[in-house]
């Protein structure tokens, strides 16, 4: 029996009686998918355990500097808060570095967050030939709002840059640059022995993934990260195996629950 030739999912020629498509992909001639994340390895999100370790390590640098009574405690505190903001509002590295104090505002739908209920991102990724795209990102993580408020009220004033508009200022009175964000991120990542595939952009991917796992509406996430198409948001998303198993059970239970079948 001659095997049909597959072209783009269709069989070339007519299928005669008794002739059936024959699979040509088997376990012995295909590559096994061993990794949970099949997207771009350069932009994979943190696992929750990795993220907790990273943020804890950033906080620890503040304590170490304070105990050693050396310079750098303020900068360490600033950087720890910066990484929390990048994650908790799903920001790119450049978007984070270019934040101003005035970019924070109230959100009538979330009055409990006060003046930090909404973040106005002014330097979103631009389409070629166009100015940076702006967007508003609602605050959704209370612990991150508390971290921002503490930094703005108690830490940033100690830099002595009251007249500077930047959220993240340096000891010399300038604005923290994207390259500096990347350098500090790499230093923390490597000190922890985390995979080199993790980059500052991974914090943004993690925000999308974790909100998806929490059941947040996909359209809300898409608007918050500034994607025009949902397919772009889908590429960012890497839900855990536990989440997939739970979602599967949720989908299967109605079909196998006698009470649900009776009601239908």
Structure description:
The protein is mainly α and 264 residues long. The protein has one domain (45-233): hpI Integrase, Chain A, CATH 1.10.443. It is built from ten helices and five strands. It has helices spanning 48-67, 73-88, 93-97, 142-155, 178-192, 200-213, 218-225, 230-236, 241-256, 258-263, and strands spanning 6-7, 10-11, 104-105, 118-124, 133-138. The strands form two sheets. A three-stranded antiparallel sheet has the order 3-4-5. A two-stranded antiparallel ribbon has the order 1-2. A hairpin with an 8-residue loop joins strand 4 (118-124) and strand 5 (133-138). Helix 2 (73-88) runs antiparallel to helix 4. The chain is globular and about 45 Å long. The two termini are 46 Å apart. Mean pLDDT is 78; it is low at 1-17, 30-41, 239-245 and 260-264.
């Amino acid at each position: 029996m001659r095997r049909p030739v597959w072209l783009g999912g269709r069989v070339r020629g007519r299928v005669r009686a008794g002739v059936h498509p024959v699979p040509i992909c088997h376990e012995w001639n295909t590559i096994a998918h061993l990794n949970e994340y099949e997207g771009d390895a350069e932009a994979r999100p943190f696992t929750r355990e990795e993220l907790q370790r990273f943020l804890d390590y950033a906080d620890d640098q503040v304590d170490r500097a304070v105990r050693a009574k050396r310079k750098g405690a303020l900068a360490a505190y600033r950087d720890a808060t910066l990484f929390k903001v990048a994650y908790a509002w799903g920001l790119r590295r450049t978007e984070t570095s270019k934040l101003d104090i005035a970019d924070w505002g109230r959100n009538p739908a979330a009055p409990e967050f006060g003046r930090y209920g909404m973040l106005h991102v002014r330097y979103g990724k631009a389409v070629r030939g166009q100015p940076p795209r702006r967007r508003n990102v609602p605050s959704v993580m209370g612990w991150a709002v508390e971290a921002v408020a503490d930094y703005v009220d108690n830490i940033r004033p100690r830099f002595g840059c009251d007249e500077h508009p930047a959220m993240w200022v340096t000891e010399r009175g300038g604005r923290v640059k994207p390259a500096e964000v990347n350098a500090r991120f790499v230093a923390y990542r490597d000190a922890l022995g985390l995979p080199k595939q993790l980059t500052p952009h991974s914090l943004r991917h993690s925000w999308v993934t974790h909100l998806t796992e929490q059941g947040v509406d996909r359209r809300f996430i898409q608007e918050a990260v500034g994607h025009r198409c949902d397919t772009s948001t889908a590429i960012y998303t890497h839900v855990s195996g536990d989440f997939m198993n739970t979602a599967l059970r949720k989908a299967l239970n109605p079909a196998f629950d006698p009470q649900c079948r009776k009601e239908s």
